[in-house]
Structure formats: structure tokens, C-alpha cells
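Quick one: sequence plus 6-O-phosphono-beta-D-glucopyranose SMILES, need C-alpha cells.
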Amino acid sequence: MDSLQNVTLKTQSGQTAVVSTYAGHLLSWTNAEGQDYIFMSKNAVFAPPKAIRGGVPVCFPQFSNFGPLAQQHGFVRNKQWRLVESNEWSVTLSYTYDGTEFPDYPHAFELITRMELCDDNLEQTLTVKNTGSSPMPFTAALHTYYTVSDISNVTVEGLKGLEYLDSTDGRKQKYEAAEAVAFPGEVDRIYLKAPEVIKIHDSGAPGGGRTYEVRKRGFPDAVLWNPAEAKAVAMADLGSPEWKRMVCLEPGLVVSDPVKLAAGESWSGAQSLRVHRPGVKL
Ligand SMILES: O=P(O)(O)OC[C@H]1O[C@@H](O)[C@H](O)[C@@H](O)[C@@H]1O
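Reply:
Sure thing.
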């Protein structure tokens, strides 16, 4: 079916990535043993315009409610994108908006996402072109869901000393004191001016543990999210025990430097993902 067309990328060593033209969405990234680094809920619904629960949804032109739209995370994750080009190891997709469908967002733009799979690295770039005639404000995030063995085995490194907005507590601004951020319950935080490199450690991953290294460019902030039991069971496309198998770390352009893109100008941001496993050369 055209609206759910998938493109598969492959490396010589046997890694694969699957990208959907629906929502410009990365659906999976597996290693040669078939283990998926990217979480996809078993309850995900693949029926446009429903957003897909898992993978890497693109939140644009608004992250969460940081913008004028009523629709959380914007609207491009509910739209069909156009396949621009693809080969064995890369794919480029584009979504064009003429500024008319959403009266609260009267800004024409073209959004382009490009994904490149190398043997130890998956790189995703997001480029926005303001094709309208007035300045275009936006926020954004690459809402990346990682597969984990169990959330109780997970810690996140690189956030110590940052200010964050706690979305579980009225977005109060707080200070991160932990070297290793753990998940004793619901975590929903926007870390402001987060560093370029953040690491997710999963001590229970097959083969003695796994570290996801997330390197971001152009996105100042980072969102960390796991809903925990109570919120997850209220989400029909997540539920229990699925929430225990995921964590989201989202390079975001949320609060620190909201962009106001001049007519005709472009903005670009990227994330580069790498996985380290003890004793395994990817
Ligand atoms: O259910 P959605 O719209 O996909 O959002 C999922 C989550 O996305 C995260 O980025 C937000 O910080 C959470 O607050 C939100 O619950």
C-alpha cells in the first residue's frame, strides 16, 4: 500500500534499517544477529493518520505543546512523506506543507529527513526550508525510542549538572545531580542545553550489556522519557509490559533556542547513533 511503503537499508555486515514513507519514520535498526536497537511497541498501530508508537517519530513543527498547535508534537508524524531518493545505505524523504491546512500554523515549509546507515553508525539529519514569505517559528524533536532489556537496568550518562524542566511536576525547573540517571518511576524531562554526547547504558542487554551513544548537532536540548506503569497502561498502543522495554532520548529544539527561520532560509539538525557492546566490533 503506497501510504505505508517501506525502504530497507543494508550494510555488508548484515545490519539493516527500515524507514517508512509514512511520517518519514525510522521503524527499526537491527544488528547482524537480528536484535533491534530501536523499540517498536507490539501494540503499535500502522494505520494513518495514527502516529506510530516506537521507532523515530519526527516531532515538527512543534515539540509537545511548545508552539501554537493543539496537536501534541505537531503534524508531520501523521502525514505521508515523499521518497526523494534511496540506495542500499541511505534514504531521503521529504514533506511539503503549503501553510493552509492548519490555521494556527500558516507557514509554508519543506522538511527533509535523510538517514544513512554505516556499519556502526546510523545518522539522521533533519533539514527545514522556510518556503513562505514570513519568518517561521518552530520547535522540533527526533523522538527516538531505544530497545532496552528492562528499564530497571538502564541509566543515562551525560546529564549531570544540567537544568531540566520536569514535565511530571508542572515543568518546574530542576537541577540534575545524578551522574547516572535511573528510572525509579515516570521520567519526563527536558534537559536544557544538553551536551553533544549522551549515553544510555543497559546492563541487562544480551551478551553482557549495551551502550547507546547519541551524538547530536543543532538540537540544543534533550528529552528523556519513560512513562512507567500507570501512564503506559492508559496508552492503548503501549501498555504493559511494553513500557519496560523502551526508553526515549530525544534530541530536541524546544526551549533553549526556539528557531524563527527567515523566509527562504534553512535550518538543519542531526543525530548520530552508535552502539557499543562488550567484545563486539560492529
Ligand atoms: O503520546 P505521544 O504524543 O507520542 O507522546 C509521548 C511522550 O513524548 C515525550 O516526548 C513527551 O515528553 C511526553 O510527555 C509524551 O507523553
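The longest strand covers residues 266-276. Residues 2-276 form a domain with the Beta-galactosidase; Chain A, domain 5 fold (CATH 2.70.98.10).
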